[in-house]
Hints:
Elements: E1 17-23, E2 27-36, E3 39-49, H1 64-81, E4 89-93, H2 95-98, H3 103-114, E5 119-120, H4 123-137, E6 145-151, E7 156-162, E8 165-172, H5 176-184, H6 191-215, E9 219-223, H7 225-236, E10 244-245, H8 249-256, H9 278-292, E11 296-299, H10 304-315, H11 321-332, H12 337-358, H13 362-374, H14 386-396, H15 404-415, H16 434-450, E12 462-467, E13 470-475, H17 477-481, H18 484-497, E14 503-508
Parallel strand pairs: 1-4, 4-5, 6-9, 9-11, 13-14
Antiparallel strand pairs: 1-2, 2-3, 6-7, 7-8, 10-11, 12-13
Helix pairs in contact: 1-3, 4-10, 5-9, 6-9, 7-9, 8-9, 12-13, 12-16, 13-15, 13-16, 14-15, 15-16, 16-18
Subunit structure: Homodimer.
InterPro entries: ATPase_NBD, Exopolyphosphatase, GppA/Ppx_hydrolase, Ppx_GppA_C, Ppx_GppA_N, PyroPPase_GppA_Ppx
Subcellular location: Cell membrane
Amino acid sequence: xxxxxxxxxxxxxxxxxxxxxxxxxxxxxxxxxxxxxxxxxxxxxxxxxxxxxxxxxxxxxxxxxxxxxxxxxxxxxxxxxxxxxxxxxxxxxxxxxxxxxxxxxxxxxxxxxxxxxxxxxxxxxxxxxxxxxxxxxxxxxxxxxxxxxxxxxxxxxxxxxxxxxxxxxxxxxxxxxxxxxxxxxxxxxxxxxxxxxxxxxxxxxxxxxxxxxxxxxxxxxxxxxxxxxxxxxxxxxxxxxxxxxxxxxxxxxxxxxxxxxxxxxxxxxxxxxxxxxxxxxxxxxxxxxxxxxxxxxxxxxxxxxxxxxxxxxxxxxxxxxxxxxxxxxxxxxxxxxxxxxxxxxxxxxxxxxxxxxxxxxxxxxxxxxxxxxxxxxxxxxxxxxxxxxxxxxxxxxxxxxxxxxxxxxxxxxxxxxxxxxxxxxxxxxxxxxxxxxxxxxxxxxxxxxxxxxxxxxxxxxxxxxxxxxxxxxxxxxxxxxxxxxxxxxxxxxxxxxxxxxxxxxxxxx
Length: 509
């Protein structure tokens, strides 16, 4: 039996294991699930309090102590996932890693400790994954709207969705650690400080509160550690049975403010581990209730990691959210779909001939396919330097389903599709992606160049072979000679493509 080709996506089989890892700003979580009869059954959970956000300074640096806690935890997580195929594991980094001035300095040793790649997701993508986890854990009728509020260590995500689809997504730089440090950094808590802080935090929610309230929702659900902790406090104080009510929050707040310092906080049901950050978390929750007009919020055990698991299921089927995002971008920017299909077909034709030699895999093929679909996106902005405009839009937009590294990968392909290749175009990408991005960039360049004339006739011969980074492209002699523009472009392309580390040779027969 031969091994599957690099471009084969293997479907999930009964008994397969999947793992999702959440590198949160307060805690690191891992959940391992088994795929059985089309459903996910959780078989293991790991959680460690790391307080990564405590080590973040104003310049985007991270303390050695926080790094060490993270690496040691990830090494333990890595042992648990060692037997799970890499394509069944996703590790997601959130707010604190997003804010690092030099994320690769943290991510490279973190990936080494875990033994797996780590994706950094934008705030709105984090919000989508959180909503997906809650929606699967607590299904509701498709016509009912729900509000999901997730207060993490470094950020707060607020989502309105229906069924499994997030309709509105917002991410604020307000988390239990970040907010505690911001307003109570010296450990002192007073009623006046609390009032002043609540005014500032409420203003953050008011940026979108009117839009959210106009849309409305039928149910409100809170998730992650802060909301669970406050739900437990409300239950211990006999204010509710685990949910959070608007009239319960002032009572919890007043009890908290009886302590003059954070270390003296004494709330029923509050763990010692949660005490140092509960003030900031409660402050954010009170501001959210005020700004959004919330009266009651249930508490869910599901969060980002469960959303990541279900997102992996969708990626393995016909409902990959990234495909829907690419289609939406093409429609929004009015791309020429026929030309995109021609370029994509040729790029993938070349890919399939070279994937084995260049050790490219199914994910690389998907990235090349999506970049080809989006390569002319920038024409909606201006014809001049449209590849630059397109790359900028792709890198800096909120695109559902994509991590930051994936958007940077796509942007790099679109940016290098034509003309001069910038010297530092791949600097934002981790070293592990550089061979794939260089090789797929070369293939997209060639496909774009071959279809520059927008001809609809098929290409009679297009053979590619590689010996290391020596790439030989063979075309039909008559067909090639009949296209003087293509001939001139390809004759100058070996010098243009050289910055990718590719030595190009053109043959005809």
